[in-house]
Design goal:
The protein is an alpha/beta fold. It folds into two domains: 141 residues, Rossmann fold (3-Layer(aba) Sandwich), CATH 3.40.50.2020; 144 residues, 3-Layer(aba) Sandwich (Rossmann fold), CATH 3.40.50.2020. Helix content is 29%, strand content 26%. It contains eight helices and 14 strands. The strands form three sheets. A seven-stranded mixed sheet has the order 10-9-8-11-12-13-14. A hairpin with a 6-residue loop joins strand 9 and strand 10. Helix 1 packs across helix 8, helix 2 packs parallel to helix 3 and helix 4 packs across helix 5. The protein starts with a strand and ends with a helix. The structure holds ribose-5-phosphate.
């Protein structure tokens, strides 16, 4: 097997390669003055099983384009299979039509990936369990939740904890992690979003958090608004303190500042998305999913 990396998350790609007992194979990614890229695979891949690691994090369109061209280059160079490890699958929140006239952007991405030559895909903590159905080739849905569960077992007393889903859509995720933690109780924030602006209109709480340490678990942190508002709501409802866990640290806009100055004690994320220094903040802790990815690619 040969493994290649795009520019979005090379640190993770090196770790995944180490988990496969191989080194990253070289690829030249050259940018022209106008922003177009030229990609050249610098190793023989004829009849080889190849993997490309690329997160579709900010800027998603640029990172996807790089991935499309890398897969095309591998196919044209004679690779037997091309697996894409897309730890964070950008556009996944557009997996169906919410309002008349919209595109299904994720389906557009999935179809392009197939056309350029992707034979299988791997991704982490997808927003909806139905997302693999959008892909015309096998999409393996991996999860950071077992890594988070181990961390929670190590850092907290389970009988003092309540898990919290920050929205109704996350209940399945919370049930899953509760299962991994001997079925500890959970609560759910009930929030309503404006479909055109994405703003949160109102929120309430279903479940009891009084006297407990609340651990919010979500798939992603984008602007950070959901986590910060959920933390305030949990403290208003009697939680002693609040921690946040999320697989994908999208960290759009000033999310880092917002989270650092919030009432959250700590924010734990995975390394599906590389976090540059300027986006990092003291309350942030990053756990690696590299081992999980390597295991899945091997099997
Ligand atoms: C929403 O359904 C997702 O699960 C996240 O809760 C959401 O995308 C987080 O966004 P933000 O950090 O901008 O509130």
């Amino acid at each position: 097997m040969k493994i290649f990396s795009g520019n979005s998350n090379k640190i993770l790609a090196v770790k995944v390669a180490a988990g496969l007992n191989i080194e990253l194979s070289p690829v030249e990614i050259f940018m022209f003055p106008d922003g177009e890229k030229r990609i050249r695979i610098q190793e023989k891949v004829l009849d080889e099983d190849c993997v490309v690691v690329q997160s579709a994090s900010i800027p998603p369109d640029e990172n996807y384009m790089e991935l499309f061209i890398m897969i095309d280059a591998l196919r044209r160079s004679g690779a037997k299979t091309v697996k894409a490890l897309i730890p964070y699958l950008g556009y996944q929140r557009q997996d169906h039509i919410f309002r008349d006239g919209e595109a299904v952007s994720l389906e557009v991405i999935a179809n392009i990936l197939k056309v350029v030559g992707m034979t299988e895909a791997f991704s982490f903590d997808l927003h909806s369990p139905k997302i693999p159905d959008v892909f015309p080739v096998p999409m393996h849905h991996l999860s950071a939740l077992p890594v988070f569960a181990e961390k929670i077992k190590k850092d907290f007393k389970l009988d003092e904890l309540v898990l919290v889903s920050p929205d109704m859509g996350g209940i399945r995720r919370i049930e899953e992690i509760s299962d991994l933690l001997s079925n500890i109780p959970f609560a759910t924030v009930t929030k309503n979003r404006d479909l055109s602006s994405g703003a949160i209109n109102d929120s309430g709480l279903d479940g009891d958090v009084r006297g407990k340490t609340a651990v919010i678990v979500d798939d992603m942190i984008s602007t950070g608004q959901t986590m910060v508002e959920a933390a305030d709501l949990l403290l208003q409802n009697g939680a002693l303190n609040v921690f946040a866990f999320a697989t994908h640290a999208v960290l759009a806009r000033d999310a880092g500042k917002l989270l650092q100055h919030s009432r959250l004690e700590r924010v734990v994320v995975s390394d599906t998305i590389d976090i540059p220094n300027f986006k990092s903040f003291p309350k942030l802790e990053v756990l690696s999913i590299a081992e999980t990815a390597a295991k899945a690619l091997k099997s």
